[in-house]
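Appendix B, Record 12. Input sequence as logged:
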Amino acid sequence: MAKQYDTILKEIIKDVVDTLISKVIGLKIVRSTAIEAKLQITNEREADFILLVEFEDGSKSILHIEFQATNYSQMIYRELQYWTFISIIHGIHPMQYVFYIGNETLTMKDSLSTETTTHKYQLIDMRTVDCEKFLYSDKPEEVILSILCNFQQKSVKIFIQEILTRLKELVPEETLRGKYIRQVEVLSQLRDLQNEVCKEAEAMALVYDLERDVRFKQGRERGLLEGEQRGIEGMLELKFGSAGLELMNMVRAIPTVDKLEEFKNLIKKAGSVDELRVVLGRSV
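Logged structural output:
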């Protein structure tokens, strides 16, 4: 998986992998359990997802799932290597699936046949998957995945508006919703839709502010406060992840730009979220 999408996509998929297995792959399982993805025999590789799954009849298997953003000409050999490693380590021949999430025409081969060996994995082009499998889900992570799917029956504008509207309905808390919208923006690059996503997100946010936030009219000072808050939000997420974002409601209670600047300096020095929470507790 391309590195710029790896972290975000893994964060999204870990919460909806069972949905992908049922809605896209078409397997009916009753549960799945993640298995250590680092495989080392003589060299080390790290798979995207390795899952021990149990089917309705009580049988079990291992699913190996990869996400690929580019046409990698050696993919069949990589999958064969993974298949060998997993089989040796776990004693089970895995079922292998590769989800192609790129925007170029899919050219990767899904099988190998030589005089001495044969191998095949299942290759799924996400551009052929109906976006409505995910768009109307009650899980924001699934809604985000729809940006990678086929929306040919919709205009780009309407499609993006539906994604953003659905996230707004599902996630009322602004900070968390902002996180999901940023994830849509990143993944939309894989479909050359980032400009459209940013434009629609900005337009929808503007209408929202004017309708519900009377402080919008306070002008420049409020704009400066919001700019500082966004900067702090990014710092907290970068350094402490989702735990850091939990502090944003307290951060928004800080009344002046100067105080926000002081808090930004504290973030750089802090070793934990708890340290910052104590400081915020004294400030608000």
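The first strand starts at residue 29 and ends at 34.
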